[in-house]
């Protein structure tokens, strides 16, 4: 008789909280690391159809960088649902207006496109400044190396 691999249960899954500083980090590389943490791929108990991930708090979202001509050429689109209701803005414009949305959009695109992905996305907390209201959760500092540059 073969033994089955045990599935993680809510009791065995203990989500941690991580603080990630986005200062001078490359957007895509940072977003893929955050998506791995949210998904739980960095844990030995990873199960594809379950939420085994941790919470991620991203601070200094306004200081994230992109390379090359992307600040002027990368376009973010949203639609009101009405005819002619598409609004577009560049990376630079969105960084001035709502810097949190840049990281949220990048990470959301790297999560599964189903109910599990929507549940995982709620574990992401992004803040423009260096402060966050999650001190009670005792988050750990997490260093992510994404080839920082000395400016563009």
UniProtKB/TrEMBL annotation:
| Disordered as annotated region, ranges | 72-91, 131-152
The UniProt entry, under InterPro entries, shows:
Ribosomal_uL13, Ribosomal_uL13_bac-type, Ribosomal_uL13_CS, Ribosomal_uL13_sf
Q: Which UniProt keywords apply?
A: Ribonucleoprotein, Ribosomal protein
- Gene Ontology annotations for the cellular component aspect, listed alphabetically: cytosolic large ribosomal subunit
Query: What is an example of a Pfam family matching this protein?
Result: Ribosomal_L13
So which domain of life are we looking at?
Bacteria
Q: Which GO terms describe its molecular function?
A: mRNA binding; structural constituent of ribosome
Compositionally biased tracts (Basic residues): 72-81
Which biological process annotations from GO are given for this protein? negative regulation of translation; translation
The record's PROSITE patterns line, in alphabetical order, gives: RIBOSOMAL_L13
Its quaternary structure? Part of the 50S ribosomal subunit.
Give the UniProt family note: Belongs to the universal ribosomal protein uL13 family.
Function description: This protein is one of the early assembly proteins of the 50S ribosomal subunit, although it is not seen to bind rRNA by itself. It is important during the early stages of 50S assembly.
Q: What is this protein called?
A: Large ribosomal subunit protein uL13
Species per Swiss-Prot/TrEMBL record: Hydrococcus rivularis NIES-593
Recite the lineage of the species.
Answer: Bacteria, Bacillati, Cyanobacteriota, Cyanophyceae, Pleurocapsales
């Amino acid at each position: 008789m073969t033994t089955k691999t045990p599935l993680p249960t809510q009791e065995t899954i203990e989500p941690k909280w991580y603080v990630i500083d986005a200062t001078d980090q490359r957007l895509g590389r940072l977003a893929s690391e955050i998506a791995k943490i949210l998904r739980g791929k960095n844990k030995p108990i990873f199960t594809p159809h379950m939420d085994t991930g941790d919470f991620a708090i991203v601070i200094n979202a306004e200081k994230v960088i992109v390379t090359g001509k992307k600040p002027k050429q990368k376009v973010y689109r949203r639609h009101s649902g009405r005819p002619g209701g598409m609004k577009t803005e560049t990376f630079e414009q969105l960084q001035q207006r709502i810097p949190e949305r840049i990281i949220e959009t990048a990470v959301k695109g790297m999560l599964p496109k189903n109910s599990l992905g929507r549940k995982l996305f709620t574990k992401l907390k992004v803040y423009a400044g260096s402060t966050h209201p999650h001190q009670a959760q005792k988050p750990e500092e997490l260093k992510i190396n994404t080839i920082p540059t000395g400016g563009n």
